[in-house]
Amino acid sequence: MPGASTRVAVALGSNSGDRLANLRFGAESLVGLFSEFRCSRVFETEPRYVYNQARFLNACCTGRTDISAEELLGVMQQIERRAGRRHGGLRYGPRPLDLDLLLHGDQVIADPHLTVPHPRMRDRGFVLIPLAELASDWPVPGLPGSPVPTIGELAAAVSAEGVVLTRHELPCG
């Protein structure tokens, strides 16, 4: 993608329907938006927040793009809808595909519809462990004047309980 200069990280998750097919659909739908597109391995994880639901498959993808964070969020929501996701249901409940914009360069965005870095990624092993496979040295911007940790440092500090590597891979190009 010409002019693709912003490094981006996206988390993918699915726990309803054909979970692996849903993740593959998400990755295949994202690949054309990025240059240097890479995907982590796939992990199976326990649900968080709402426990009486199926386990998730999770992965992360990184790449470079010239698409703004706001535009990318809109495209990701369209991909989720094409995968069968209906927004407005139970928060943290079952879903065929969940795409979260984790990082968009070194931007810090605090908007009612978009927060970057993702506000809960620092506490989520199911995000940090796959992301560290791709970008362990990537600094995570935060509050001005505070130390800037890397993805690898955050992944090392988070619990890996319930995050299990699978034998599955995603298409990355």
Major sheet characteristics:
6 strands, antiparallel
* Percent helix: 25-40%
CATH second-level architecture: 2-Layer Sandwich
- The secondary structure category is alpha+beta
CATH homology-level superfamily: 7,8-Dihydro-6-hydroxymethylpterin-pyrophosphokinase HPPK
> Total domains, how many?
1
Count all strands and give the number.
8
Q: Outline, from the CA principal axes?
A: globular
Overall residue-averaged pLDDT value: 88
Number of helices: 4
CATH topology: Alpha-Beta Plaits
CATH class: Alpha Beta
N- to C-terminal distance: 13 Å
Detail the poorly predicted runs: none
Query: Topology as H/E string?
Result: EHEEEHEEEHHE
- C-alpha Rg, in Å? 15 Å
Strand proportion:
15-25%
Structure notes:
The chain is of the alpha+beta class. It has one domain: 7,8-Dihydro-6-hydroxymethylpterin-pyrophosphokinase HPPK (Alpha-Beta Plaits, 2-Layer Sandwich), CATH 3.30.70.560. 26% of the residues lie in helices and 25% in strands. It has helices at 19-31, 69-82, 125-135, 151-157, and strands at 6-14, 35-39, 43-45, 56-65, 98-104, 109-111, 114-116, 163-165. Helix 3 (125-135) packs antiparallel against helix 4 (151-157). The protein is globular.
Main attributes?
single chain, 173 residues, alpha+beta, Alpha-Beta Plaits, 4 helices, 25% strand, globular
In short:
The chain is α+β, with helices and mostly antiparallel strands. The protein is built from four helices and eight strands. The protein has one domain: Alpha-Beta Plaits, CATH 3.30.70.560.
